């Protein structure tokens, strides 16, 4: 989620080609990524008024970029969007 905490509007681009990555915490190995490739990103301009928020979601199927199931463990999900990046840790049982 991006929240505009500034006193002026925030303008950025959104689209299907923004980077997403999943990294195993135990090894630091990036097991899956998307968005770091050639892409027909037409991009959509988003303008957030002061105090407004925009949320973007995605689903990861627990597989590597090669389609193999990842082992149980903790993984860091990193997303780049709107000129910002954020990350969260999730557990795969």
Report on the architecture of this protein.
With 93 residues, the protein is mainly β. It has a single domain (2-82), classed as Immunoglobulin-like (Sandwich). 0% of the residues lie in helices and 45% in strands. The protein is built from no helices and eight strands. The protein has strands at residues 2-3, 10-14, 20-24, 30-34, 44-48, 53-54, 73-81, 84-92. A four-stranded antiparallel beta sheet has the order 4-3-7-8, with no helix packed on it. The chain is elongated and about 45 Å long. The model has no long low-confidence stretch (mean pLDDT 84). This is FlgD Ig-like domain-containing protein.
Question: Which characteristics define this entry?
Answer:
two-stranded antiparallel sheet; FlgD Ig-like domain-containing protein; mainly beta; elongated; Immunoglobulin-like; 93 residues
Which overall shape is indicated by the principal axes computed on the Cα atoms? elongated
Q: Main sheet, how many strands, which sense, barrel?
A: 4 strands, antiparallel
What proportion of the residues is helical, as a percent range? under 10%
What is the percentage of strand-forming residues? over 45%
- Return the domain count: 1
The name CATH uses for the topology is Immunoglobulin-like
Report the CATH C-level class. Answer: Mainly Beta
- Tally the helices: 0
The structural class is mainly beta
Element string (H = helix, E = strand)? EEEEEEEE
Terminal-residue CA separation: 26 Å
How many E-type strands? 8
Unreliable spans are none
């Amino acid at each position: 989620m991006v929240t505009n905490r500034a006193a002026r509007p925030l303008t950025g681009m959104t689209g299907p080609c923004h980077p997403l990555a999943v990294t195993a915490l135990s090894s630091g190995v990036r097991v899956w990524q998307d968005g770091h490739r050639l892409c027909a990103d037409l991009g959509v301009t988003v303008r957030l008024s002061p105090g407004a928020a925009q949320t973007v979601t995605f689903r990861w199927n627990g597989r590597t970029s090669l389609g193999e199931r990842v082992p149980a463990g903790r993984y860091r999900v990193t997303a780049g969007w709107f000129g910002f990046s954020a990350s969260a840790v999730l557990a795969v049982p």
